[in-house]
Amino acid sequence: MAAGLPRSFMAPLILGIVFFLMTDRYWIAIGIALISATIYLPAAVFGITIIAFVTIESTEGPWRYRIIWRRILPLVVFFVLLLLLMPIVVERLQGIWTIFFEQNWSFGKILRDPNYSRVGRWALIKDFPFMGLGGLVDNYSELWILVTLTPLSAAIYILRPETYKNFPRILKLLFIVSVILYLLAWLAIFLTSSIMLYFPSRYTRLSLALALLLFVVINLGPPIRIFRTRFQKLERTPKVLTITTTVVAALTIYLLLEQYDIWSRLGANRTSLKVILIVVYAFLIGTIILISLSKDSIPEPLRVTERLAGKKEFSILVTIVLAALILIGLPPDNHGFFTIEPPTKDLMTFFQTIPKDSLTAGYPCSLDYVPIAARRQILFSCEFFPQNASDRIMDNMRAYYSNSLSEVLDFCDKYGVDYFVVVPRTFNISEDMFIYFEPYNSVLYPEVASQAGYVLGDIPQSMRVYDGEKFIVMQCDPDDIGELTNQATQIDGLGILAHDEVSSTLSQAGEVDMTVKWIADKEILADYEVCFSIKNSNGESKQKVCEPLSPDLPTSQWSIPEIRYETYKFRISPYLESGAYSILASINTRKEVDDRFGIVIGEITYSALPRTFNTSKINSKLAYDVIWGDVIALSEYDVTNSKSNTLELDVRWHALKRMGESYKTFAHLREAGTNVIAGQIDAIPRNWTYPTDWWEANEIVTDTLSIPLNDLGPGRYELWLGFYNDESGERLPLADSINPTLSTKEEAVKIYDFEQPDLGMDD
User: Above 60 in pLDDT, residue 298?
Assistant: First the structure.
């Protein structure tokens, strides 16, 4: 709003300058340009450029143009008075140059700055050359005006080319100066990497629409009569062709705009606005077809200068143009200051009730109207962007998306913030979400997306001083947080305020993932753990997992009061039997376990894989020739050298005990008598689906390993078998009781050898 209010004076200032130039009152036009310099500099630059062009007019002499010296004096007076107003002007220039001006000039450097990227704070190019601060317009609502007036102007020119020739020179300058200043502003961007001439769109977003609107309002009547007359003179067949082609083309345009959701982007969701746009393009298409079918000449209408000979007539025209700008420039989705949505208006009404010296922070774009509509101070917003604000922006957005209430309160204390505004919908995180302008968005998004929870996404009712349809306001000094612990299971002032309801069906060793919302209302002296107990239907605990309650910040270091989200992940024991289980959470110190304050936070249905167990009563360790580490025995195996040029190894493993580690099986094909590995396969058992740390004691596990032989040359090969740790790579040693007649090497055992024939074909 800080920049938006001066910018809103652009239209009346430019119209005033144009009006007084057309009525030959140059001194008044100079006065308006001078006033513009103290309000909005682009308006002054625009106005004085038009005035400068007016001092030159065409002539039939050898030089073609001549200077009207009596019009030079007002320009001289302007620059003299501008020097007197320089303190005010310099103050405004400093506001621009301090933010945008680079000390080290570099050609095009600004285009590589994320601040000016497509999602930057000052996005130069969104949909070039139409959208963005470097485009012809700023937003889609302005684009709607442009794409409506442009085809209408084109149709008028096609029907009557003389309209441009007869168009007043000063109104032509409105268009010409727009383009010149637009190009100069871009030239300054490229050469100096600065916005020393302001953003290019500041010279076209209004003036182009204004020039086109004046052209349409002045010239629309006669071309419509020409269109009607030419259409009436057509034969029946050309008439039908004109109508049919125009309707089909207009419907095609409508359907394309509907399919690609262009209507909502243009802010033209109302049926009336859609009809206007389609009628305009139908008029242009019909005009083109009509001109191609009809060659009759039409008498030239009155020159526009004759129709606008009096000051009164032009004053009426200016009034009509201003009214038209207001009517067509405010589509329903483009809420300006005078069309604030009811939820925003209610929020502004609330802010008018808080102390005038209060400072407010929160979601930036929700604060745009506060300084003007409520006259209260804000830290920053999407419109109000103070100098050197990078630190406060990052701190504000990290506090806004924090998982800890104390971090929010610490932020408020650091910057002296009294109130914090929250927009609940902003916590629905998606991949293409806008957190804040670049370069902040790319830094903040990964942090926000990985957050356990957002404490401001569910502010307790007792902490809300305003609870509206779209906005919530929290006071940065919550006195009522102590009452909340009455609702929470607690120990030492610490409790669970809310948690995810875990309810799912899990397969073997499935993972539980949950978020818990903790609350603390007094100083915590101990570093607590949270323990999750898995209990069967009889209440027997079958698994217990404990971990720090707050891994990043021990509970004894929490600031009070605190509300904090934490996420916990753990795997269900692979040794559980199939059935229904409940998950109980309890708070414990690291020295003792206390289940008195445990609560049930979820119910799961567990589905375990079927197991086969060894039923013999023999001593397993003495019954096998090959054993690894006293944990895995090779019960049986069978090797098949298939015709598909693959070695198939079927094995039966015997788990002698539970294993706390996952081991991979390796099968190496070595050239006979050497350590050269010609082929190999490494895998978690059962094609990576049944790791050894899931095996139960005395379980029999069958598996098949397929080893390709395609790359082997002719010769003799040996098959060696072993295990190694999945994480460390350390091999599982062979037991001392291994059959001494077997060949062993490097914790592997040779179980098979074979001759590989020459598979090549004779020429």
Answer: no
